[in-house]
Amino acid sequence: MSSLSGVAIHSGLTSRVTLHREAGPLRFRRGQAVIEATVSNVIGAQRATSLGSGGAQVHLVEHLLAALRVAGFFEGVLVEVSCDELPILDGSAAPWAEPIAALGAPPPAPAPLVLTEPLTVEANGGRATLAPGPERLACEIDFAHPAIGRQRWCGGPDAYPELLDARTFGFLADWEALKARGLALGASERHAIVFDDDGPLRPLRHADEPVRHKALDALGDLALLGRPLHAEASIQRGSHALHHAMARAVVTRAAADGRA
Fold it and tell me: Which structural domains are found in the chain, ordered by start?
């Protein structure tokens, strides 16, 4: 068992998360309700991935799921949460590495989902293609902001750890608008990279940190498959909605092929 606490970015509340080793699929426990970390339980994709079941909800799960994926945990962890939103921490998945390591070695990975035919998915202005092949993830972004522009990241499981410290990012005007709507109450420059017209308000950890974070989000969202995905995935203008659509398409294809 290991724990981590921090501020919830939207509510501003202190959120405490306790990780337990427990056989079975990855699950979140909120009070007496248990929510399995599966794409069928996705209830929201607005600025974060939200899961819900039995009247309970939990938001901002993708960074923890990505860190679990990097550590090799496809199952065997119960995540107990004190409120309905995980802490934003520093905006990356890196702070989760230590409490996950305290759980010990992960159980053997389940059999992978092997893509046998190409898939193309479009959602929220983005496009993703999946092709048969060894597991590989490529993400591309293109922002008008001169400090971001066009960026691309590509790598397989051996490269996934380099995504962990990439922080979420946004723009000062959007941040102020969210606060005006009663959202992002816990947000500060310690929790994200904020860009104003001139560039980031704090130094970047990597020149391509924005696209690395987009790839991190994709990795966490695709972890909702509960199994490794043997496919070459290429994502343009990624979003949580697009990642969820990818996962659903893979599940649907696997079911049609009798491999779900």
Answer: 2-102 (3.30.230.20), 113-257 (3.30.1700.10)
